[in-house]
Amino acid sequence: CRGRRGRRRVRAGCFMRYSDKRFFPANATVDLAAYLRSGDILGATELQGPTSFYYHDLKVATNNFSEKNKLGEGGFGDVFKGLLKNGKTVAVKRLTVMQTSRAKADFESEVKLISNVHHRNLVRLLGCSRKGSECLLVYEYMANNSLDKFLFGERRGTLNWKQRFNIIVGMARGLAYLHEEFHVCIIHRDIKSSNVLLDDDFQPKIADFGLARLLPDDHSHLSTKFAGTLGYTAPEYAIHGQLSEKVDTYSFGVEIISGRKSNDTKLEPETQYLLESAWKLYENENLISLVDESLDREEYKPEEVKKIIEIALLCTQSVVASRPTMSEVVVLLLSRNSSELQPTRPTFIDSTSRVRGETSSSSSSSASRATVSISQFSAR
C-alpha cells in the first residue's frame, strides 16, 4: 500500500476500502459479546423488527392526514408528508388490511422483512403503526418526489443526460439487490417511474417493493392476483399470471430515456405503445429518434444512448429466459465494451389486452445470442 493510510476502489458490483481509522461510529456497531457468551453467534444477524410508532403521533405529524400534506397516491394507499416530534421529516403511507388473522400475520411478517432491506437505491421502511384494520407505514422522505414528475410532469426537461444515466444504473442496482442479493427474492411487480423516488442528490430509490407477495425461493409460480400497470407489465405475467424476477426486468428502462409514458397511445402515425415504437425504430436503425427532445444534444453521444435503448430492448424480449438478470444489466450499462447487442422482438399488449408479437411464458426456453454473450458476467 506504499504508506497510504486509506484508499478505496470501486467496480461494478464490487467495493473495497481500507483505512487506519474507524469506518463507522461506535453507536453503529453490534456488540457480539452477548452472542459469543451464549454460543448464539447467528443471533446477531437475525432480522430486526420495524420501529413501532404511535398512531396518534403519526396522525399529528401529518396534520390529520390533510390534503395539504398529501404527497401522492400509490397502488397500496395514499402517502402523506409528516413531521415527527424529533423534527425528522418522513413519508407516511396509509393503507388498510383485511380483518383476518392470516392477513395480519402475513402483513406483519412482510413489514419485518421489508424493514431489513437496506440499499442506497431502495426507499427505507422506518417503521409502522396499526389501529384496527388501518395500518401506516413510515418511510424515509424523498425531497424531489417521484421520477415521473421529471419525465412527464411539471418538472420535465430539468434532468440532464448524466442524471438520467445515473438514475437508470441506480434502478438496475436496486432491482439486482432485491432479486439476487437479499436473502429472499423480492419481486416488485410494478416498476415504473412513479414508483421511483429521487433524493436531494437525484439518486433514485425504488418504492413500494415487498408489499406484493414474495416469490418462493425454489421456482417461479402462477399468481392469481395481478399487481401491475398495463403497458409496463410483462406479457407472461399479465396474460398467464406467471411471475418471476424477469417481470421486473421487462418493466425496466425504456420510458426513462424516451420521456413519455410507456402506455402512451397517442403516438403517430398510428396508435402504438412506446415499446412497439422503439422496436420499429430499432428495425429501421433509427433509435436516436426515440430520445426525449428535452435533452440537450450536446450532453450525450448518440452511440451511448443507442446502447442504453438496446439494453432496454434486451430486457423486453418475448422469451423470458432471453432477458438478462438485473445484475447482468448493471454490468452492461457500466461496460465500455462496444460489442453489438442483438435483442429479439418483444411482445406488445395494448389497452384492450390484445397481444401483438409472439410471447412465451416459459422460463426454460433457449436464450438469445445477446443473453449468451453476457452470461459470464455477474454484478452481485
UniProtKB/TrEMBL annotation:
Binding site for ATP: 93
Family annotation (PROSITE patterns): PROTEIN_KINASE_ATP, PROTEIN_KINASE_DOM, PROTEIN_KINASE_ST
Keywords, comma-separated and alphabetical: ATP-binding, Kinase, Nucleotide-binding, Serine/threonine-protein kinase, Transferase
Cross-referenced SUPFAM superfamilies: Protein kinase-like (PK-like)
Name this protein carries in UniProt: Protein kinase domain-containing protein
GO molecular function, one term: ATP binding
Protein kinase domain ranges (all copies): 65-348
Family: Belongs to the protein kinase superfamily.
Region (Disordered), start-end ranges: 344-380
Source species, domain of life: Eukaryota
InterPro entries, per database record: CR_Ser/Thr_kinase (IPR052059), Kinase-like_dom_sf (IPR011009), Prot_kinase_dom (IPR000719), Protein_kinase_ATP_BS (IPR017441), Ser-Thr/Tyr_kinase_cat_dom (IPR001245), Ser/Thr_kinase_AS (IPR008271)
Entry-linked PANTHER family: CYSTEINE-RICH RECEPTOR-LIKE PROTEIN KINASE 3
Regions of compositional bias (Low complexity) in chain numbering: 351-380
